[in-house]
Amino acid sequence: SRLTAREEATLRDPRMAILERLEESRDPSVVDALRPLLRDLDPTVAAKAAGIITARTGIATTAVTSRYVPM
Question: Fewest CB within a 10 Å sphere: which of 17, 53, 61, 63?
């Protein structure tokens, strides 16, 4: 998404809101769409994506955040 591409930690709130809506979705393609977020710069966003994927697939999924630079 455009918000993720900007790589700004200050955008956590709207991104978390989007993840919460996706979590509510019944669309099976959500899992594939969330996989890139496992490496998000913000560990909170990455962990939320991992939690959604784990809940949907039943397979433990771990976030792999490489760095976090607060703005």
Answer: 17
